[in-house]
């Protein structure tokens, strides 16, 4: 019994040692797997997007809603004398959208635009509901937004970038045109004042017409920054467009 007991003890010891080796190998494999996933995550294709728009356009709300829709969002602020930048990243499948939300200082534009040479896309947010509003200087707020878009889209440093326009606050716009006729503020509008489709299309055409770069398409999306589902659909559409453009540029 003594010999049998000793053999059994040695056998159990060997078995335990083998199990420890197996567990250690499993942990190593798990660590390697996590490391590979981390490296793969880091290697995701990143598309940089410049987010611009006048104050009150709703672009900050868009970023906040995207942070809710995409739980993997990361955000950080950068400040300087030229501008303030809120940088947010969102992972969509095998790619990452890095959005740079910029608060514009008009007098410093030439300086800060030169900092974004590696940005491939610009999203410009305009509030449709501003069509009957006036700025502190007495200008029509929507016309000011279109002038800002003109100065950015046709700037030498951005004129070859792909441009997406979010015509935001569609829900507010729909309610307002029923009581505040669009044709009173934009006399060249010929559609029925209460027709949402005609009114929204009018502004889409206005923004497309501002572009002076030949063969560059202006991608228009109607948005409600406070509607997460609508914003998710819009973001997916923008993401698809970016992927398609990259495939074309790569000759695929």
Automatic annotation (TrEMBL):
InterPro entries in the cross-refs: Gprotein_alpha_su (IPR001019), P-loop_NTPase (IPR027417)
MF (Gene Ontology): G protein-coupled receptor binding; G-protein beta/gamma-subunit complex binding; GTP binding; GTPase activity; metal ion binding
Keywords carried by this UniProt record: GTP-binding, Metal-binding, Nucleotide-binding, Transducer
Pfam families registered for this protein in UniProt: G-alpha
Protein's UniProt keywords contain GTP-binding: yes
Binding site residues for GTP: 101-105, 168-171, 225
Entry GO CC: cytoplasm; heterotrimeric G-protein complex
GO biological process, one term: adenylate cyclase-modulating G protein-coupled receptor signaling pathway
PROSITE patterns attached to this UniProt entry: G_ALPHA
Superkingdom of the source species: Eukaryota
Signal peptide (residue range): none
Identification of the protein by name: Guanine nucleotide binding protein (G-protein), alpha subunit
UniProt lineage: Eukaryota, Fungi, Dikarya, Ascomycota, Pezizomycotina
């Amino acid at each position: 019994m003594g010999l049998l007991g000793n053999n059994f003890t040695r056998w159990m010891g060997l078995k335990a040692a083998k199990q420890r080796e197996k567990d250690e190998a499993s942990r190593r494999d798990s660590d390697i797997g996590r490391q590979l996933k981390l490296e793969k995550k880091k290697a995701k294709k990143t598309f940089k997007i410049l987010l611009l728009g006048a104050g009150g356009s709703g672009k900050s709300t868009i970023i906040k809603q995207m942070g809710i829709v995409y739980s993997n969002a990361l955000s950080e602020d950068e400040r300087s004398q030229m501008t303030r930048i809120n940088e947010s990243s969102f992972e969509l499948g095998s790619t990452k959208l890095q959005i740079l939300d910029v608060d514009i200082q008009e007098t410093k534009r030439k300086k800060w635009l030169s900092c974004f040479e590696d940005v491939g896309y610009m999203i410009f947010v305009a509030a449709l509901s501003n069509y009957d509003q006036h700025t502190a200087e007495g200008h029509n707020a929507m016309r000011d937004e279109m002038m800002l878009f003109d100065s950015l889209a046709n700037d030498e440093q951005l004129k070859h970038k792909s441009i997406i326009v979010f015509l935001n606050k569609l829900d507010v716009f729909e309610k307002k045109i029923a009581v505040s006729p669009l044709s009173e503020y934009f006399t060249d509008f010929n559609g029925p004042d209460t027709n949402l489709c005609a009114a929204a299309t009018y502004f889409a055409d206005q923004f497309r017409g501002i572009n002076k770069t030949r063969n560059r398409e202006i991608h228009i999306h109607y948005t409600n920054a406070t509607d997460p589902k609508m914003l998710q659909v819009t973001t997916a559409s923008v993401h698809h467009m970016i992927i398609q453009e990259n495939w074309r540029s790569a000759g695929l």
